[in-house]
Amino acid sequence: MISILFLLASFFLLPITSHASVPDFCVADLNAAQTPSGYPCKNPKTVTVDDFVFSFLNNRGNPQKQFNVSISPAFVGQFPGTNGLGLSAARLEMDVGGAVPIHTHSGASEMIMVVSGHITAGFISNNNTVFVTKLSEGKVMIFPQGLLHFQVNTGEGKATAFVAFSSSDPGLQVLDLALFGNNLDSSLVGKTTLLNIAQIKQLKAVFGGTE
């Protein structure tokens, strides 16, 4: 009898618990301050279909002249509809010899799909094992969250790829900028990298760091 009563209670409670009021989406209010859990929700009455549509053609990206690449992000800051959904994207354009330097995304895993050209890509695991391969049109590779990784155009023409992330705001730290794009004393950089001071100063001049 107790078992039957328990089953009946579960049956009648199930609709209550399974139909809890959960918002369908939380489009980012980009006029508000971002928090560790994302942006506050935009008033649902002001949400339009445009909040859920993004065009890479209208966002030509950020050219990185030192590396001959251009990256067009579709993160929450550019694409408010991704807020809280655990996904975002980017378009990568690489000139001949272009490269995305070694970097990491602390907040997301990454997937890259090559749509034209040839890209050599790889990542380094925490035990310093290197995983590298050559990607051509239609090939996909994943980079686990937080691991150092890179992409290099190793073809004879331009290369294009689309990138997806498991976060609306994946974060980014570029190794070159972390070492040479700041005001950390050059002598300390030298002691931690074994580079000589002349090399460090030359690189700081390239990446905007100070001595």
Automatic annotation (TrEMBL):
InterPro entries documented for this protein: Cupin_1, Germin, RmlC-like_jellyroll, RmlC_Cupin_sf
Binding site for oxalate: 105, 110
Domain Cupin type-1: 55-201
Pfam families per UniProt: Cupin_1
Residues in coiled coil: none
Primary location: secreted
One GO CC annotation: apoplast
Key words, A-Z: Apoplast, Disulfide bond, Glycoprotein, Manganese, Metal-binding, Receptor, Secreted, Signal
Gene Ontology MF terms in the entry: manganese ion binding
UniProt superkingdom: Eukaryota
Cysteine-cysteine disulfides: 26-41
Signal sequence, renumbered to the chain: 1-20
Keyword Manganese in record: yes
Subcellular location: Secreted, Extracellular space, Apoplast
Binding positions for Mn(2+) per the UniProt entry: 103, 105, 110, 149
CDD domains, A to Z: cupin_OxOx (cd02241)
Protein family membership: Belongs to the germin family.
PANTHER family documented for this protein: GERMIN-LIKE PROTEIN SUBFAMILY 3 MEMBER 3 (PTHR31238)
Protein name listed in UniProt: Germin-like protein
